[in-house]
Records
---
Amino acid sequence: DTEVTQTPKHLVMGMTNKKSLKCEQHMGHRAMYWYKQKAKKPPELMFVYSYEKLSINESVPSRFSPECPNSSLLNLHLHALQPEDSALYLCASSQVGQGLRETQYFGPGTRLLVL
Amino acid sequence: AQKVTQAQTEISVVEKEDVTLDCVYETRDTTYYLFWYKQPPSGELVFLIRRNSFDEQNEISGRYSWNFQKSTSSFNFTITASQVVDSAVYFCALSEYYGGSQGNLIFGKGTKLSVKP
């Protein structure tokens, strides 16, 4: 089973709102990722968690706050976002090991619109 | 620096035609991995194939085939007898060693394939 689930599928929020995106996987993967994808562009890496610890933060603004409460769950807390943050947010997971060869499996994404 | 180039921005074919999506990569590493992902309009990135730098054998999976040539740094993807369901954006990606134990995916800009009935 190579399924990664994400909720919600769609989210509309104002610039003063606080919301959270949720990602879940039950493949026993110990690495989880957040990507941001703008229209007609490839995904851009935001964060990587390895064994529930943040291992990579791609200089993402602090209005995005990731959290990995356990090995199956990954959250992305959103606060005071800007309209330019509107995008598709993708979660992925993979085995941890020799990182080069570990395939990342992606969820369906959350389409975020910031008004 | 590592880079993936998908020169074809958009391709349109008629159902049952064969189509090849090009991918050219740049890396100084001797060990690397290449991937293809499919992204249908629904948004999910679907993993199609992974290839390591030491295995140049071509691979076939049903209507899909991949041609890996290190001499030209290319990893091309061919769909035989295309179907409307193949309509999607296809991304080629290169895995680099980022640090720690995780690899980072370097994506090409993607090729949008439209298959008309």
---
Amino acid sequence: GAVVSQHPSRVICKSGTSVKIECRSLDFQATTMFWYRQFPKQSLMLMATSNEGSKATYEQGVEKDKFLINHASLTLSTLTVTSAHPEDSSFYICSANRPDRKTNYGYTFGSGTRLTVV
Amino acid sequence: QKEVEQNSGPLSVPEGAIASLNCTYSDRGSQSFFWYRQYSGKSPELIMFIYSNGDKEDGRFTAQLNKASQYVSLLIRDSQPSDSATYLCAVVGNQFYFGTGTSLTVIP
């Protein structure tokens, strides 16, 4: 089945620094990837849609200058949290859909990244 | 109004019992419905998806969809302690909309 790899799984950083999270589709090409954020005991909230070769589409309320998304190839999307602050501490999850699948069950989630900003 | 609503629980059932999880959604035009299981600190994993009204069975899991009433449910038969997790309902409209999840505990 489709595999999406996310790295790192955990990261602790100091306030004011930047953190990059990678999301790779291992056995398929993903023209679109999605980035979610999940706070404790809350649901997944879509932050942005990453499109290969073009600008990402951000959801309302998500700062595009703070959460930089790069989708430079068909297998890799990166999310960079710039100038991280403690309130950015959260569980970040990416997902991708196989473009050759017409049914939505092709969505696969990465393993997630636990970001802690101290 | 939230796109997808779930009872947050917690729901506790004894081992071997049937666990019933419910979800309602607001967009009547939604076509695709999913149930995910999420263990603490882990990413969601797909359990089932359903597109058509009625029941869909897969092993111990049965998804039920009623588009007229705008609800989708998940039944887990012969519940096992390993089923203890948070179950997320997801509905596809313009994007994936997730419910807040129902926490299930299966008591040995």
